Amino acid sequence: MVIALGIGVTLVLIHAGASNLTSTILLGDEKTSLQKVGDVLAPTLVALAHDEEELRNALSNAKKAADLESIQVLNHRFETVAPRGGTPAEVLLGRKLLDELSRNRSGVSLVRSPVLGDVFALVRPIVGGGYLFLALSAKGYEGRRQAILGTMVVWGSVILLVMFLFGIVLFRAIVKRPIERLLHEAGEVATGRGQFAESVEGEDFGVLKESLRSMAKRLKSDRARIESQVSELEHMNRQLMEAQEQLIRTEKLASVGQLAAGMAHEIGNPIGIVLGYLDMLTGDQLDSEQRNRAHEQIRLAIQRVDAIIKDILNFSRPALDEEATSDVVQVVESVVTLLRPQKRFNQVEISLDLEVDRGTQVAIPPSRFKQVLLNLLFNASDAMEGKGQIGVTIKRDGEVVLLTITDSGPGIPEDLLLKVFDPFFTTKEVGAGTGLGLFVCHTLVNRYNGAIEVSNAPEMGARFTLQLPTHKVTNKERR
Questions:
Q1: pLDDT digits (tens, 9 = 90+) for 158-209
Q2: What's the predicted TM-score (pTM) here?
Q3: How far apart are CA 267 and CA 172, in angstroms?
Q4: Residue 391 near residue 442 (C-beta atoms within 8 A)
C-alpha cells in the first residue's frame, strides 16, 4: 500500500510538472508565431492601404497561410475597416477587451471570445493610424499540449515502473534476503537450537549481526542468571513455607499446652471421685444399692475425663484428616465449650450472638479455625487478667461471614494497633508469651482468602473481626 501510494503521488507530480512545462513551452511558441505574423503584415498593410482589393487579398492570404480565425484592420475606434462582410472584431472580443489588448506591451494574449472560444489575440498599432487585429484559435494549441502531455506521462510511468521493478530486485538482494537470514538465525538463537553465524567481510548488515550476536550472548547469560535466581527463590520460598508451617505447629502445640494445663484440675476432680469411690468399694460397709450408685458415679467421672481428652484430641489432630470447610456455629460453640471449664476462664463470661443459621459453612478447615479462635480468646482473657466479659458475634454479609470477638479489657494503644500481627511482637512479660499467636492467626486467615482486623471498641476493650468467605455446599457434598 505504501509503495502504491508512493507511485500514485509520483505520477500526480509528474503529470503536474509535465502539464506546466508543456503549457509554458507551447504558449510561448503560439505567441511568438502570432507575433511574427503581425510583424510581417503591419508594414505590408501600410503600403496597400490605398488599394482596397489588394488589401483584402493580402488579408485573406495571410489568414489562410497562418491558419487564423480572423484578421482585420481597425480604425482608432476599433471599428472594422477591412475586410468587409465578416464578423467585426468588436463582436468577437468586445471594444473594451480590444482596448486592453492595444495597450498590452507584451503583445499576444490568450483570451476568451464569446464567438470563437479560447483564442490567441493580437491588437497591433499600424503606422499612419488604426490597428491590426489577429485571432488564432487555441484548439490546436490544446490538442498539441494534450498529446505532448500524454506522451510525457506514458514515458514517465514506464520509466518509473522500470525503476520500481529494479528497486524491488535491488531491495530483495541487498535488504530482504540478509534480513531473512538474520531473522532465521535469530529464531534459532531464541529457541536455543543455534547461534549467529560468523560475519563475512563485506557482508551486508555485518555490523547489525555482530550487535545481535553480542546481545544474544548477554541474553543467554541473563537467562542463566535469572534461572539460577528463580531456583534460589523457589528454594527460599519452600524454606519460608516450611518455617511458617513449623511456627503454626509450634503455636498449636503451645495452645494445646495451655489447654492441658488449664484442664488439669478438671481432670483431677473426676479422678479424685473415682479414687474415692474405689476406696469405698474395697470395704464391706456398702450395701448393693450404694455399690450401684458408686459404680454409676465412677462411670460418670470417667466419661467426663474421656470427653475432656476427646476435646483436646479433636483440637490437636492433623488438618489432613479433616474437611476443607467448617460449620462456623458448631466450631465456635465447641471452642467455647472447651474453654469454659478452664481455670483461667472461671471468672470470664463468654456470650454468643449468633445471627447465622446452623450449618453455615466457611472455607477454612476446622482445626485451623479452632486454632485461630483459641488464640484470640486466650488473648482476650489475658488482656482482662481473667476477669470480665467476652462477646462473640457471628453475622453474614453477602458471601462473607463476619465473626467479631470483643473483650472488656483496657484495649490496645493506638500506636500498637498496626504491630499486633507482627511476628514475635508481644506486650506480655518475658516468658509469658511468644508473640506468635496473632501472627499465626493472621497467616491462617489470609491463607484461606479471609481477613482479620483489629480495633478498639467504642465502649471499652479490643475488638478483632474475622472475615471468612462462605462455602456453598454442593449436592455431591451433601451425599
A1: 787 787 788 777 777 766 677 777 677 666 666 656 665 555 444 555 666 6
A2: 0.44
A3: 94
A4: no
